[in-house]
Amino acid sequence: MLRRIDEALINRANQSLLNELEADYAALGDKLARQNIDIEAITRSAADFQIAVPSWGTGTGGTRFARFPGTGEPRNIFEKLEDCAVINELSGCTDSVSPHFPWDKVDDFSELKQTADEYGIKWVSVNSNTFQDQPGQEHSYKYGSLSNTSKEARELAIQHNLDCIGYGQQLGAKSLTVWVGDGSNHPGQQHFQRAFERYLASMEQIYKGLPDDWEMHIEHKMFEPAFYSTIIQDWGSNILAAMQLGPKCKSLVDLGHHAPNTNIEMIVSRLIQFKKLGGFHFNDSKYGDDDLDSGSLHPYQQFLIFNELVDAEYRKEQDFNPAYMLDQSHNVTDPAESLINSAIEVQRSFVKALLVNREALYGYQEDNDALMASLELKNAFNLDVSPILAMARYRKGAAINPLAVYRSSGYRSKMAELRPRDPNATGSGIV
Ligand code: LRH
Ligand code: MN
Ligand code: MN
């Protein structure tokens, strides 16, 4: 297997932390045993947990005002893949990448797939981009893509999505994620129903092009770039479209795409109930689609979402297999560091949700014991499961302290030498 970070560096760093980790792990094991929880079973589940890295997250994002790129950032999809391999080697929980087209320009898909295979990285959900025009594009998306009043613009957008399926097939992916910025900026600008009808008709064409073993995931978002109305503005429009299109179409929940204070975990529960939960874009948010690091602001919300997911697994909900992906924009941090940290924070929420005593919780719910029910959740959330996460990483050959190893490897400054920046280069793809 091809590696980007010297294994000896990780091993040396791990050896220096192992005694402390073993002591913390044993103490936590004793504590959990008193609650009849087998720490080893939890650690195995933690080790199995994987979340995909977004190819576009490996570069500094930026806002519509400015972008402040760091040195040594990836300049193409192969270099993005290199950084994803680093993130996986250190975190042990990100063995896949979700690409975005045409931001990820690929001449030779088999070479890209082979390189990823060598790093032990899989390609997962392919994201299409019909929210901006590409140079020389014949029919503009200024007034929308799949719902545009212009048939030619709609056809272009449909064809791009079909092309994305083709790219994904060459990479071994099994789903297409569709987010469009279509909408309006002025009341009256758009006929709501006709626009939604055009969107659905376009999506039907894409759905017909899905291979048998593929799924299509629709991402809703309340606003931006359209500031008055957005075509798939919330999970209601999302599930309506997914139901209309068929069983291979599901809804994708991006945590940043809701109004502040929205009960996202309840949306997740509804989507699970109707077999329409396709996956997630994890990030955090205070105001709108801030794309902040996962769990950095609302770790309890993230835990409550995982509480629903683990509950569905516990109940052996049929056809339940949501795709976990990050979708973040890093403005002031090293993207690799943020992605490592975020992946671990999502894994942390999953592990804490495993600690909830489901039967006890169901009992409190039946008895309408609100306080004990809420404490059942809060007690799990309040436990520090860091030793479990660190032990899962250690046993897989990843780093007990991934950020410390990353920094001591000098990876970014090495990349700064190997990846000189073209002063005329545009952004990494984040709008
Ligand atoms: C839209 C979005 C969507 C895009 C990505 C770059 O805000 O969340 O997932 O593909 O950002
Ligand atoms: Mn997203
Ligand atoms: Mn977003």
What is the averaged pLDDT score?
97
Strand order of the largest sheet: 3-5-6-8-10-11-12
By CATH reckoning, the class would read Alpha Beta
Instruction: State the helical fraction.
Output: 40-55%
Characterize the quaternary organization of these chains.
Answer: single chain
| Alpha-carbon distance between the two ends | 35 Å
Query: Regions with pLDDT < 50 over 5+ consecutive residues?
Result: 427-431
Q: Which second-level CATH architecture applies?
A: Alpha-Beta Barrel
Organism: Alteromonas alba
GO molecular function, one term: isomerase activity
Keywords: Isomerase, Manganese, Metal-binding
Pfam family, one: AP_endonuc_2
Structure described in brief:
The chain is an alpha/beta fold and 431 residues long.
Topology:
Elements: H1 7-33, H2 39-48, E1 53-54, H3 77-91, E2 96-98, E3 100-101, H4 109-119, E4 122-123, E5 126-128, H5 151-171, E6 175-178, E7 183-184, H6 192-208, E8 215-219, E9 229-230, H7 235-245, E10 249-254, H8 264-273, E11 277-282, H9 299-314, E12 323-326, H10 335-354, H11 358-366, H12 370-382, H13 386-396, H14 402-409, H15 411-418
Parallel strand pairs: 1-2, 2-4, 3-5, 5-6, 6-8, 8-10, 10-11, 11-12
Antiparallel strand pairs: 7-9
Helix pairs in contact: 1-13, 2-10, 2-13, 3-4, 3-10, 5-6, 8-9, 9-10, 10-12, 11-12
Bound molecules: 6-deoxy-beta-L-fructofuranose and manganese (II) ion (MN) (2 copies).
One manganese (II) ion binds next to loops.
